[in-house]
Specification:
mainly alpha, flat
């Protein structure tokens, strides 16, 4: 249990410290924009919650074409498009 007892608390606390530093940086930047600390935190939480909602803007039909089967002969042949000449 020796080494695990030292590493486990660090692995559990380190992400929390990074998260708190990130939230503090965001609150300071919103404060420089003129928002209060509480408003900045509320805006951050609303932004994070709003990013979980995906509103589709448009929809497109995707058509998949079957690829040509690979044969060594198709690597070196030139595929001509058939056009009608008048």
């Amino acid at each position: 249990m020796g080494c695990l007892a030292l590493i486990l608390p660090i692995l559990l606390v380190l992400p929390l410290i990074f998260l708190l530093i990130l939230v503090d940086i965001i609150r300071i930047s919103f404060g420089k924009l003129g928002l209060s600390s509480g408003t900045a935190l509320a805006l951050l939480v609303v932004t994070l919650l709003g990013s979980m909602v995906n509103i589709p803007v448009s929809s497109r039909r995707i058509v998949y074409e079957q690829p040509l089967p690979f044969t060594p002969a198709t690597c070196f042949t030139y595929r001509r498009e058939l056009t009608s000449r008048s």
